[in-house]
Amino acid sequence: MNGSSKTAPQTKSRTFTYTKASVTAALAIGGIVLATQQAQALSALAVVNGLTANGGVGVSKNILYGDEPSQDLDIYYPKPLAQAMKTESAIDKRYPMVVFVHGGSWESGSKEEYAFVGQSLAQAGYVTAVINYRKAPEHVYPDYVKDTAQAIAWSHTNAESLHADPKRLAVIGHSAGAFNAVAAVANEDFLAPYGMKPKDLAAVIGIAGPYSYDFRKYGSATAFGANATPDEVMPDRQIKGGQPPYLLLTAEKDTTVYESNTIKMTEALKAVGATVENGEIKGASHATSIGAMAPPLRWVNDVRAQVLTYLDKTLQ
């Protein structure tokens, strides 16, 4: 399946850049100080010169939300915010924020490969975190879900430092990333270690997510452990606590993750009183259901329009 990675304080030097086409701007100014206390705290932030060719968004790269190299994320800033940060101008506005979780069968993929999602959402006015998480086969369920929850909590904790509003924070995932995002929120036990509840989030969007299937029949079984069963790990069977609103999208021509996953997840969420909206991405395959978020591919289908319409309604 193409569905899809302590307690002592630590300091890490990180590079902050803008993107201009595929060229990385010059050296970073300053750095960040990370406190390793469940969800790490960001204390200082700086960015350098450069603008993208398609409208100009800023990006801070390789910020740790955990202790391992794969527990990091990139933050994308809308153009007005990026320019204000660069010039050290007063910033009074707080922007809505999105955390994006990529797919890759829980074994592959990286935040770098999904930079186009961060750029696309930042261009629409959202401070966006695109995260990495630990991968199978070295790390099986629930490690990657725990990482997703920790990245969500880090983003919530640090939203104000990023000029974002923690009360307008949404989570989006595609394929295996949709599994991670929905699993991390639907079961309150994943966010509880960070003092968060599912309803602290404004919305969750799942795109082509495998929320309810028997992984033992597929190659993705290695991501769940030898003795795991669907009843123990599938998000539609692990709902606990009050829920935020959800948008669950399917791709019309998806032959990788079947619509039954979304149908069953929707039924399970509605059974506990959650608000769930569904949508179909016409003409989309599994890959283009996220690929069309990229500027050159927006004509392929309307996934970006559906996502932004929902975000504008729930976060703006």
Structural features, described:
The chain has 316 residues and is α/β, with parallel strands linked by helices. It has one domain: Alpha/Beta hydrolase fold, catalytic domain (Rossmann fold, 3-Layer(aba) Sandwich). The protein is built from eight helices and 13 strands. The strands form two sheets. It has a ten-stranded mixed beta sheet, sandwiched between helices. β10 (164-174), α4 and β11 (203-207) form a beta-alpha-beta unit. α3 (143-158) crosses α4. The protein is globular and about 55 Å long. The two termini are 35 Å apart.
Question: How are the SSEs ordered, and which strands pair?
Answer:
Layout: E1 10-12, E2 16-20, E3 23-24, E4 32-35, E5 41-42, E6 58-64, E7 72-77, H1 79-87, E8 95-101, H2 115-123, E9 127-131, H3 143-158, E10 164-174, H4 176-186, E11 203-207, H5 230-233, E12 246-251, H6 260-271, E13 276-281, H7 288-291, H8 303-315
Parallel strand pairs: 8-9, 8-10, 10-11, 11-12, 12-13
Antiparallel strand pairs: 1-4, 2-3, 2-6, 4-5, 6-7, 7-9
Helix pairs in contact: 3-4
**How would a crystallographer describe the biggest sheet?**
10 strands, mixed
Order of helices and strands: EEEEEEEHEHEHEHEHEHEHH
Radius of gyration: 18 Å
* CATH superfamily placement: Alpha/Beta hydrolase fold, catalytic domain
Class from helix and strand fractions: alpha/beta
CATH topology tier name:
Rossmann fold
- Count of separate structural domains: 1
How do the strands of the widest beta sheet line up side by side?
A: 3-2-6-7-9-8-10-11-12-13
Weakly predicted, low-confidence segments: 2-38, 41-54
CATH domain class: Alpha Beta
**Helix content class:** 10-25%
